[in-house]
Design a protein that fits this description.
By secondary structure, the chain is an alpha/beta fold. It is built from six helices and six strands, in the order βββαβαβαααβα.
Length: 157
């Protein structure tokens, strides 16, 4: 029976989410939803509480069985306030999904170790790769969230 997974990429002011149905075997993942949760304006702690509720409620209502969150990346140019705020949002998201489903964090850099030999950015730009890997509508800006789902799927096979 297919499982329902969600891939999440946290940014400073929004969270990109891709929900997929993961069929048994090697069939392509089926895109169920591709959207973003914007962080509400104003007081960040209040916005974090609202985001936590939105993410947890969505995962509960959609019966998500596994969540994969993109890990923080090391910034060689120095850490900015934006990087720290993105990390805060990521923590809120991880906390929210972990209350509903098994959750893992995957680094973009580790993608090439789970399948193929290319770097993650090369997969993100490859339209043919995406036609083979997923079925349904996936915005090009959401490919990173789908890519970590593919990496998690291949790592557990």
């Amino acid at each position: 029976m297919p499982e329902k997974w969600i891939g999440l990429v946290a940014g400073r002011n929004e969270v990109l989410a891709v929900e997929v149905e993961v069929p048994d075997g090697d069939d392509p993942m089926v895109i169920q939803a591709d959207f973003a949760w914007p962080l509400q304006k104003g007081d960040r702690p209040t916005a974090y509480r609202v985001l936590h509720q939105q993410v947890a409620n969505y995962c509960r209502e959609h019966q998500i069985t596994r969540a994969v969150v993109k890990e923080s990346a090391v910034n060689r140019g120095g850490t900015t306030k934006g990087h720290l705020e993105s990390a805060e949002v990521r923590g809120v998201v991880i906390s929210a999904v972990a209350t509903i489903a098994p959750t893992e964090v995957i680094a973009k850099a580790s993608v090439s170790r789970t399948f193929g030999s290319r770097k993650a950015d090369e997969y993100l730009r490859d339209n043919e790769f995406w036609r083979d890997q997923v079925s349904g509508d996936l915005r090009s800006g959401s490919r990173e969230a789908a890519l970590i789902l593919l990496a998690a799927r291949n790592a557990s096979s």
